[in-house]
Amino acid sequence: MTRRKAGAPSPRPPPGELDDAAFFRFGHAVAQGGDVVPPRGPQAMAGGDDAATLARFISLAVPRLSAPDATAQRLLAEHGSLAGVFAAAGHGGAGGGQWPDALRVMLLVAHEARRRVQEAALRAQRLLASGPSLHAYLHTVMAHERVEQIRVLYVDAEQYLLEDVLMGQGTVDHAPVYPREVVRRGLELEAAGLILVHNHPSGNPAPSDSDIVMTRRVIAAAAVFDMTVLDHVIVGGGRIFSLQAEGLL
C-alpha cells in the first residue's frame, strides 16, 4: 500500500460520492468554515448513555469526524434507539444513504458480540426461567427486522437451550411456517421441547388468528414425536407477547 506523504492533501472522493466525514453532514446545517451545526429538537431527547456510547463508536471508526456527539444524537433520533442504529447498520445504513464502511462494520461486530453474550447467558439457565434474559436476547436478534422472521428455540429435557434456528422469513406481515420442518430439526437435535418465536414489524405484538392456528398445528405435529411446544413468543414495538402466559397455547 502506498503511503501518502506528510502534508499532502487528502484525495477528494469521485464526483457523486461522499467521504466518511461528508456523509455525516446529511441533515445538518453547515456553518461558515464547514463546521457541522449540532441537531436540535427531538435529537436532544435521545438517551445520554446511548448517545455517549454511540459517539465513542463513531470517534473510533471515523476519527476525522469533527462532531461525533452531534452525529450520535442524530442517528439515535433517526432510528429510535441504540439497538435501532445497530439494526440500521445491518441493513446497510438504510435511511441515510451508504454508511462509512468502518462504522458499519464496527457496529455489526458490536451487535454480534452483544448477541453472543446474551445467547451464552441463556445457555447457562433454563429457558423458561430466564425471563428478562430471554426477552433481551429476542429483542436483540429480531425486534428491528423489517420482515417477519420465524425462529425456533430448541431445548433439552431440562429446558436448556440446544439451538436457536432461523426457520424462515417472509414479508412485512407474513412468514411461512412448516410444522414438518420444525419437527424434523427438533428430531435431529434430539430436542424435548421448543419455543416458537416470531416478530411483528408493524409493532403490535398481539397474535393474529393465523398465528394461533399455526401454533396449534405445530403443537399437534410435535406431539406425535413427544416434543412439547413450551411457548410461542411474539416480538413487536419493544414489547413481548407470550401465548403461554396469556392462556392461548
Automatic annotation (TrEMBL):
Pfam family, one: RadC
Keyword field contains Zinc: yes
Domain called MPN: residue spans: 127-249
UniProt keywords, alphabetically: Hydrolase, Metal-binding, Metalloprotease, Protease, Zinc
Xref: Gene3D superfamilies: Cytidine Deaminase, domain 2
Family: Belongs to the UPF0758 family.
PANTHER family: DNA REPAIR PROTEIN RADC (PTHR30471), UPF0758 PROTEIN YEES-RELATED (PTHR30471:SF3)
Protein name: DNA repair protein RadC
Organism, as annotated: Acetobacter suratthaniensis
